[in-house]
Specification:
430 residues, alpha/beta, Aspartate Aminotransferase, domain 1, Aspartate Aminotransferase, domain 2, seven-stranded mixed sheet, four-stranded mixed sheet, 16 strands, globular, binds pyridoxal-5'-phosphate
């Protein structure tokens, strides 16, 4: 960690005067002060104090090919020379929509927006308009951005109706969001059946990524697909994290489920702000200017982000399955290595993950949903985080986030990281 009067610390002090909490997204704040980054390349970033850290946060999963990827830089530079925004359609938007549709066949039509929050908000509005119903069902621990309909947690007691998880979200809005338990087919199935006449959609992260990675039990997603279909409720896969991460066709390809609507973000933009929602043609045709559902955005589909997206997806497609099999192998190595270290240090913890996603939870319960994730000892995680930081390894500061590998990480780095993890967990067994 940088010294007491490091530039990071000075900047943090300045930032807090003009930026609430000193950060532009709350997860970036951690104790005693966040590192301020000056530059990044490949698997590493350099702080404003010129200290280099190996990065397993990767902008919360946005960077599958590491920082400052040469192909993306070239595409962005060329795009900028041609003008960064026109407020008119471009050829590359069409190419990108075609490419997305070819990689994810459930996305017959696609609309580009700027953030995952925007995309889920519009997809939910669209689902409501298409179905003529107003409620949505989400799962505890699932995160779908920071707009009102999804900043909702399970209501108290036996009530299924959601209650606001942030002040400023009205209870009237929250009541239209039902909340169920991830991996509990019975409860979710009953809610969907009981509320089918008023339920527009079920929105789910196929792998929960915002509570640490929590995998779907075999059959869970299949059951959701079956019951939503039988009850004329739309199924929305929020693939902001899993899209292009589990496979080039996302979780829907990985688990072989065809949702009605899909949300993409993070990797899609190749490090620039870009998100998308899309899906069945008959649903998407309800959007303005074709249909009655309003949705718009000045920067939507801007040519710089679209160029970065095209460079990212084309490169992933060209390299084919090789990227994903390598990432999966590296992910396995990390998960097994972590489990071995935990065992030899006699520290009880769970290691979760799939493909290039991983995280450990200091709990004796298998982590399969929100409640088991929340049983983790956060103080232990904080100690673990700071031990790794001292070894110049950056993992997400919160227990309830996922670590990500990129193609820029190499074997030597993985080995060094496992060594540091081994040392970090040893300090926890005392
Ligand atoms: C699954 C999921 N959906 C939606 C969002 C919101 O995306 P954004 O931060 O681009 O608004 C996130 C962000 O972490 C996410 O992980």
């Amino acid at each position: 960690m940088a010294g007491l009067d490091s530039r990071s610390q000075q900047l943090y002090r300045r930032a807090r005067q003009v930026i609430p909490g000193g950060v532009n997204s709350p997860v970036r704040n951690y104790s005693p002060y966040p590192l301020f980054v000056g530059s990044a390349k490949g698997s590493k970033f350099k702080t404003v104090d010129s200290q280099e850290y190996l990065d397993y946060c990767m902008a919360y999963g946005a960077l599958i090919d590491g920082h400052a990827n040469a192909e993306i830089i070239e595409a962005v530079e060329q795009a900028l020379e041609r003008g960064s925004i026109y407020g008119q359609p471009t050829e590359i938007e069409v190419e990108l929509a075609e490419l997305i549709a070819s990689l994810m066949p459930s996305m017959e039509m696609v609309r580009l927006v700027n953030s995952g929050t925007e995309a889920t908000m519009h997809a939910i509005r669209l689902a409501r308009a298409f179905s003529g119903k107003k409620k949505v069902l989400k799962f505890e621990g699932g995160f779908h951005g920071s707009h009102d309909s999804v900043l909702v947690k399970a209501g108290s007691g036996a009530t299924l109706l959601g209650s606001p998880s942030s002040e400023g979200v009205s209870s009237e809005v929250a009541k239209n969001t039902l909340v169920s338990r991830f991996n509990d087919e019975k409860v979710a199935g009953k809610i969907i059946r009981d509320h089918s006449s008023e339920l527009a959609a079920v929105i789910v992260e196929p792998v929960l990524g915002n509570i640490g990675p929590v995998l779907p039990n075999p059959g869970f997603l299949e059951t959701l697909r079956k019951i939503t279909e039988e009850n004329e409720v739309l199924l929305i896969f929020d693939e902001v994290i899993t899209g292009f991460r589990l496979s080039i066709g996302g979780a829907q390809e990985y688990y072989k489920i065809r949702p009605d609507l899909t949300i993409l973000g993070k990797i899609l933009g190749g490090g620039l702000p870009l998100s998308a929602f899309g899906g069945r043609r008959d649903i998407l045709e309800k959007l303005a200017p074709l249909g009655p559902v309003y949705q718009a955005g000045t920067y939507s589909g801007n040519p710089v982000s679209v160029s970065a997206a095209l460079a990212t997806l084309e490169s992933l497609r060209k390299r084919g399955g090789q990227v994903y099999s390598r990432l999966e192998r590296m992910g396995d190595e990390m998960r097994h290595g972590m489990s071995d270290h935990l065992e030899s240090a006699r520290v009880t913890a769970q290691v979760n993950g799939v493909a290039s996603m991983f995280q450990l939870f200091f709990t004796d319960r298998p982590v399969t949903d929100y409640h088991s994730a929340k049983s983790a000892d956060m103080r232990k995680y904080e100690k673990y985080f700071h031990s790794l930081l001292a070894s110049r390894i950056f993992v997400p500061p919160s227990q309830f986030e996922t670590c990500f590998l990129s193609t820029a990480h190499n074997e030597d780095e993985l080995e060094a990281t496992l060594g540091a993890i081994g040392a970090a967990v040893k300090t926890l067994s005392r």
